[in-house]
């Protein structure tokens, strides 16, 4: 049986970012120092206690901090869902490969637990079920690894949902972002031709990820008109939109095959307008003005099996999780402000552990 002995020097309290009130990060987040450290799992518990190394921030977290109320009896509302770190202790019910103290892992909190209950991971120690933890090689950079569950799982679900395969030509809108940068690599691994859309300042990065063609959306504005002119006679099999540009779908018959689809995970135009667009895009009949192309949007909760698969790809050198910037724990508010610029090249990460 694998050892379940905890690592030394586990303090009784820990630091964590909490949101005591609704509002933007700068006015709502507070760094507290006396939060009780989660208890060590014992016996047949399936849980794993993790010393957090890095936390990857989500684009929509600040929006959630502005609108979600604090529920009674749930404790302090702590943001974020994905992390990298080291195992401190684990119960005998946890997967054997993540039981040993010191094992490098990536993990995630469930969406209901993190969003509704506020049991997020922007803390020094986290206790989560073993089904939400995956082992990583110690050689993998911990900042990069912290983005595997969010960006990696979302990109993987997009190509699986679309059915991207060898011989397809796909457009990736937002190819320099946290999801788009992984999406480009996964599409290339499947043998697809990839056209990436980003700003000119990100061209070198996006080309380095392997795109076959690059489009600067500032230079070619409006983008749908350019796509219709440039690709009307060689339409895409799929448009994978990581930004959430409604015009890209509305005009898609001009550059997307009849049997193709737009797969969107972006909410750049705002939650309210995006929800309205999703309803029209998915259910409005063509006889009433609906677009004669498929539109797909879905939730993307992380999954352990996806993380294990992505870790293997990273370990083998086939995929990397680009990191835009790493902020110290004390500077987490600045990290949220970096995301808000919408110019991040890959993941924005907070370094939690001082070790």
Automatic annotation (TrEMBL):
Domain Enoyl reductase (ER), first and last residues per copy: 25-350
Gene Ontology molecular function: oxidoreductase activity
Region forming the signal peptide: none
Record-given protein name: Enoyl reductase (ER) domain-containing protein
Originating species: Penicillium canariense
